[in-house]
Amino acid sequence: MEIAIRPRLDRADVEAVVRGALGADLEFTAHEEFTDGFFNAAHALQIADGPHVVVKVAPDKDLKLLRYEVDLMATEIECFERGLAAGVPMPKLHHADPEGGVMIIDRLDGVSLPNAKERIPEADRLALRREIGAAAARYATVTGERFGYPRKDGRTGADTWSASFQMMIDDVLADIAEHGSPLPRPAEEIRALVAAERDLLDEVTRPALVHFDLWDGNVFVRQGENGWGLEAFIDGERAFYGDPIAELVSLALGPEDERAAVVEGFLGREMTAGEERRLALYRIYLMLILIAECDVRGFDAETTEHQITSATKALVANLEALES
């Protein structure tokens, strides 16, 4: 699918990026463009007598983006560097240029989880989900200086989680108002529902690293001698410092038994009532992002309708859950 903000690069462009970063004399034997992402350009290059790498290039800084999307390449690089240092399985980082909006990582050997599901025996399914949850929990061992997005201008940065999260909600509601995207409830009602949970949010006192985009497409697995296992997580551009429970918004989807297995791996226990309530807040935030981004991404009419419809349904359900 064509995405309006995604950079358009050909093979020569990508080779020039890699030569500039890793060596002017490099030669390449294969190239592949990945077109399923909605933000960065992503291309794979096989370096002759070298690694198979993926090159990610951020959209032009002059393009109109959502308010949270400023410095996303710098955010992803920070997520990679700090996640790898904490033992999170992620591709090796060969080159990082946050100012230039470029990163080069290893290409993984495995496949994304949606492309492997039909081949994974049912007996291995829950064990794999527990492994994924336990590995994702390592992100939360990383502590930020403040809550919020790790961007240069400090926007959404705060000393309390409630203050930071309220700014994140305010920003995405401003994006929606600016673009005229439809909401099932007035923005002020949504803002007030979040503000009413200030004390609950401030039970979170440490700004933990949260990837916040660990849906199955960003989880790579591979088959080994002992069955299927996790290889690595990718795509950390939505990362922020906040409540570790927010990781479960994308991580714990799917059938109830798989959700329970992920939570068991992630927390080592069941969620508390307060954590379930905070999770509803973070689902609301993600659904607002999904509604807001349709116009900015330049989706076609069918994709826009599908995404807004599904996000709105989930938004309504979680707003009602808070009110009940």
Automatic annotation (TrEMBL):
<dbReference type="Pfam" id="PF01636">
    <property type="entry name" value="APH"/>
</dbReference>
<protein>
    <submittedName>
        <fullName>Predicted kinase, aminoglycoside phosphotransferase (APT) family</fullName>
    </submittedName>
</protein>
<dbReference type="InterPro" id="IPR051678">
    <property type="entry name" value="AGP_Transferase"/>
</dbReference>
<dbReference type="InterPro" id="IPR002575">
    <property type="entry name" value="Aminoglycoside_PTrfase"/>
</dbReference>
<keyword id="KW-0808">Transferase</keyword>
<dbReference type="InterPro" id="IPR011009">
    <property type="entry name" value="Kinase-like_dom_sf"/>
</dbReference>
<feature type="domain" description="Aminoglycoside phosphotransferase">
    <location>
        <begin position="35"/>
        <end position="274"/>
    </location>
</feature>
<keyword id="KW-0418">Kinase</keyword>
<dbReference type="GO" id="GO:0016301">
    <property type="term" value="F:kinase activity"/>
</dbReference>
